[in-house]
Amino acid sequence: xxxxxxxxxxxxxxxxxxxxxxxxxxxxxxxxxxxxxxxxxxxxxxxxxxxxxxxxxxxxxxxxxxxxxxxxxxxxxxxxxxxxxxxxxxxxxxxxxxxxxxxxxxxxxxxxxxxxxxxxxxxxxxxxxxxxxxxxxxxxxxxxxxxxxxxxxxxxxxxxxxxxxxxxxxxxxxxxxxxxxxxxxxxxxxxxxxxxxxxxxxxxxxxxxxxxxxxxxxxxxxxxxxxxxxxxxxxxxxxxxxxxxxxxxxxxxxxxxxxxxxxxxxxxxxxxxxxxxxxxxxxxxxxxxxxxxxxxxxxxxxxxxxxxxxxxxxxxxxxxxx
Amino acid sequence: xxxxxxxxxxxxxxxxxxxxxxxxxxxxxxxxxxxxxxxxxxxxxxxxxxxxxxxxxxxxxxxxxxxxxxxxxxxxxxxxxxxxxxxxxxxxxxxxxxxxxxxxxxxxxxxxxxxxxxxxxxxxxxxxxxxxxxxxxxxxxxxxxxxxxxxxxxxxxxxxxxxxxxxxxxxxxxxxxxxxxxxxxxxxxxxxxxxxxxxxxxxxxxxxxxxxxxxxxxxxxxxxxxxxxxxxxxxxxxxxxxxxxxxxxxxxxxxxxxxxxxxxxxxxxxxxxxxxxxxxxxxxxxxxxxxxxxxxxxxxxxxxxxxxxxxxxxxxxxxxxx
Lengths: 322, 322
Description:
The first copy, chain A, has helices at 24-35, 49-67, 84-88, 102-115, 131-134, 169-181, 198-214, 220-228, 240-247, 252-260, 278-291, 296-319; strands spanning 16-20, 39-43, 78-81, 93-96, 121-124, 144-149, 158-163, 185-188. By secondary structure, chain A is of the alpha/beta class. The first copy, chain A, folds into 2 domains: 11-188, Rossmann fold (3-Layer(aba) Sandwich), CATH 3.40.50; 230-319, no CATH class. In chain A, strand 7 (158-163), helix 6 and strand 8 form a beta-alpha-beta unit. In chain A, helix 1 (24-35) packs across helix 2 (49-67). The longest helix of chain A is centred in the last third of the chain and has 24 residues, at 296-319. At the A-B interface, helix 2, helix 7, helix 8, helix 9 and helix 11 of A face helix 2, helix 7, helix 8, helix 9 and helix 11 of B.
């Protein structure tokens, strides 16, 4: 299915990856790529970055081993470079994870573009900038794609993939295919939205939390416990939409929206609610069925099994390291 | 420690509870109280509610059995009543879970107040109304307390406890003590905030999600997967604040706020960010230490162990019911 951007190897032909930027996220990617059997050439302008990078990879390795290493996986596959050209030599993919400063990203992407093999795709870990603005100074913007991971990238499966206005559809498809092949859970977006999907959602929650602390309405500890002992016990299995689908009881999301729709106007957050039009209502109701068409009663059983297993697991963890 | 409101039994002397309202939440409470060894008198104005109530309790029972029943636990301890006076006879606590309609709540609370033993505490499952407005017509507002559970109340530990302006401090303390004794994780708030804590947070996220669907920026399935495969894998262990504490790397929340503070101004959600004042910054940074003073590196190890165990558990669930 994947059309290969001109001159680039197929996603399954990648053997070496450059991690450009070796902070927490870049190092996490490096650990993951090594565990998946790639040679990793890490670049960071600061020579001190190497020690921290190796420390993080060592710390991540037991977890990666437990999840299952690729047969070619080895920490020996890592090399560290302060010279960008050297770090790009012989790689078939680049994952950029520089600090989240737009100008810095723009400069680095232009340098990567000039130095990397013209055909290869370059992914960026940016957590919110659009590729359109980041690739402003690149000669070949068509090969630049956002591949936004979640911390730690070596354990959280999600990668959000989206191109900029000048990115080619082939490059977006190539990146999505590559990330999937290495075991990531990919969401490909068809348009640029600041913060993508997961960050928008988690930022809304984070800002509401900051408001509560700011107004003395809740402490940091209360905020965290309200999630870990509350909705956080459902979210690893069923996202926020399915959660409300189940809150509607046997009538599901349709019952929930028709019944509790008016409470959207309640002052429950500082975030204004959208108008609950007929169209929005139907989109949400239909979306739940598209996502999981099983009856709500069956989803409830699954949720219950999940929460029990999760609570047991957490109790086990609290008794001591496994 | 607990001072008993005048005439009421101590929290450990409760043997029978009235569940006023037997919908999804009321029935979930009934199942939980039965599993904890109480006699439960369920009231609902609709005679049809009984069959659904018993169905829900039966469905919840295997989960409750697996988590461990009280030695006196029995489904035989349930009786169903359409007469409110009858349902209140001989109980030492009332959990009200009527539909979320303010006027209906006001009327029911006044009726409960008139019919229940004057000394006993009455808790409400409301998910957002303040007790001040709900107990408007009650003769003894001092005994009315919000005890807000999360669905399903028989599995999710969180209960948010808060009084109204006329609620006595003793009643708030009594309710918190009672819920804790029966195994709940209680957050006692010292002021009324619409939606309490957890709902405010989850509503912010839910509204952002609705905006995204409304604007065609994401599908329902993408929204859910962005959580279940992303931040949802951290939230059962570490809430949103500790999550960002770890995002700051070894420097923790202080590094995170000092570094990424300006990105609060990014258009990452429709929710305006509060001004990141020095005071707010310090409150958040100190709050993390109050919550968990261990070094970030240790918290990271715990997070990694948790995510691995969780991912394994979810894989096991997907292979088939346990």
